[in-house]
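Box 3.1 A note on notation
Throughout this textbook, protein chains are presented in two layers. The first layer is the amino acid sequence; the second is a token string describing backbone geometry. Keep the layers aligned when reading.
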Amino acid sequence: MKLISLLRITNFVTLLVLFLGTVNVLSGQTTYLTLEECRAKAIAHNKILQAAQAQQQSAQSTRKASFTQFFPRVHTLGSYTYVDENIDYTMDLPIAELLQGLAISNPAIVSDPFYATLLGMQTQGYLPDEYSLSIGKENNWIFDVTLTQPIFTGGKLIQQYKISKSAEKISDASLQKTGNELIYQTDEAYWRLVNISAKYALANDYQALVQTLLSQVQNAYDAGVTTQNDLLKVQVKLNEAELMSFKAKNGVHLATMALNQIIGEPIESSIALPVTLSEIPYVPYDSTKVQEYIENRPEVLILKQEMEIKQSLTKIEQSRYFPNIALQASANYQNPNPYDSFEADFGHNWQVGIVAQWELFDFNARKHTISATKHQQQSTQLILEQSKELFELEIKQAELQYKEALKRIQLSEKSVSQAEENLRITQNRFDEGMCKSSDVLEAQVSWLNAKTELIEAQTDLYTKRANLEKTLSLLY
């Protein structure tokens, strides 16, 4: 069944044409915008959507940073220290007393050649009585390079990277959800303006009908063929029509401001709508693929990734039962040189080693933490299952509302045809003097109500279509 067969929109287009003739009454300059242009402006203007885009970019960078944890880390350390005063140390060396004590305790030692040699060196001053030591240099330099490469972490790094990927997918789904809701909000405001604009044009038409009838009744009253009561009834209806037109005009102004706020236009600028409405395309919806639509909902995608994060957190806690092993290599340069009696030049050294760290006992803290993350995982799973049921109901409701809107248009179009025919017949009978002016007023009100219902039905169909697309996450 083609939807165009259901949407004979000639009357609606006529009302919009009339509205466009009066749109400049509300404000000065007029901006002509289609629905797609309004959507584009809303996307470019909305700060919440821009914040979601920034969050998405942040999550992408975080995921890239997490991936670098698999590669070695290189750290450098450099320092320069100026020392004003070195450490000076003087140590007493009582060589003479020592030799004399040896001779007294063992007189035979004096004939020993080594003793005689020491005694001669002491006598000639080669063996001083004290020794002075100066430690340190004025200029001290240190430069060190260290490389650390994780070898085994119990799967910790892999799970951390998975968490960053899940966080990125959550930001993508959040952006889609925000954009989906923004476009639906824009569509609602757009079709609300279409609705009230058409009603404003209809109110002017109705006012013109009542004004024409008033002129006829006034002539009849002047000719004495009708009563003043009949004249007053028509005048009351004309007053009501004027008030209706005034309220509709204010409604157009408010609806325009609401749409301007969403799309980022100046709040008082006027918006003119297209004078034609294109055929409403089929919503790409297949009732046999409801589960597929549900799985693609951003809310479901977010909950799924939260499940993945909980699983990774559980595995990270389990990895605490295993050691962390890493390769370390370093090279250093120092001045003064500790490898050559602290001479004032650069000395260098390098080393390679394996570092292992293992938590052996923690009073079951790891066990309890693992249990907590598993319960969080179970909680998220239950929320996911409940959400899927609610989303399925939401999609079914949106589908039924869309079909109801289609049926509503069919009935409204029939009512408009009948009301127009009733008004034509009643007006002809009144012109021929075969019915009262009150009958014409009643026919005009029926015509107004039928036209109003058709406007409601036509704009409601577009809104219900947008709502169905929103539930299917097809708008953004």
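Residues 1-28 have pLDDT under 50 and may be disordered. Strands lie at 30-32, 73-82, 87-92, 130-135, 139-152, 270-272, 324-335, 347-357.
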